[in-house]
Design a protein that fits this description.
Structural class: mainly alpha
Helix content: 40-55%
Number of domains: 2
Strand content: 5-15%
Shape: elongated
Distance between the termini: 74 Å
Largest sheet: 2 strands, antiparallel
Number of helices: 5
Bound molecules: zinc ion
Strand order of the largest sheet: 1-4
Length: about 180
């Protein structure tokens, strides 16, 4: 059996709406032409009737495309064995304190899967490792990059919940002085 042609549930109301709008626009246009060229009322009325009839007799074919179903590809992972080691920059987690090691953490670890076994990175970080390896100590350049933006956020009146007087801020400023 051939598949049934899909009809929009809105087909008929769309058709009505289309015709109503067309009549409205045509009438507006007609009135403006009539007043500009001083066309007599009876001529305008007759023309208006013609237009309305023509629009009413139009066969409007409204169809719609079914939206493609969006399937999210499983690209992220919590499994540390196959998780990318790239460091990622995210404005709401610039610098934090690791509770276990009590060290400053710059950025966060990329959540994507590694490309294949034997590599450390996802597809993107394999091509370009802008913020370095999350498991390695960041160099001064990377530290400075995160610190500068962290300080910018403090100056924006505690945006993103950064507390200018917090222990974290104190430690970040200490690092900044040492760079
Ligand atoms: Zn990655």
């Amino acid at each position: 059996m051939p598949p049934k042609k899909q009809l929009s549930p809105y087909k008929f109301s769309c058709e009505d709406l289309f015709k109503t709008l067309s009549k409205y626009q045509c009438n507006k246009l007609l009135q403006s032409v009539a007043s500009s060229y001083k066309i007599p009322d009876d001529v305008v009325l007759k023309e208006r009737e013609n237009i309305i009839n023509q629009i009413d007799n139009l066969k409007v074919n409204i169809s719609y495309k079914k939206r493609k179903e969006y399937t999210k590809k499983e690209t992220t992972t919590d499994n540390l064995d196959n998780r990318c080691c790239g460091r990622v920059y995210s404005a709401n987690n610039l610098i934090s304190i690791d509770e276990t090691t009590d060290k400053l953490v710059y950025g966060s670890r990329c959540a994507r899967k590694i490309i294949t076994h034997g590599t450390q990175y996802c597809n993107q970080h394999n091509k370009s490792l802008t913020h370095g390896n999350f498991l390695e100590k960041p160099n001064d350049y990377i530290k400075n990059h995160f610190i500068v933006d962290y300080i910018k956020q403090i100056n924006k009146d505690g945006r993103n919940g950064i507390d200018a007087k917090s222990e974290l801020t104190k430690r970040v400023l200490d690092v900044k002085r040492s760079l």
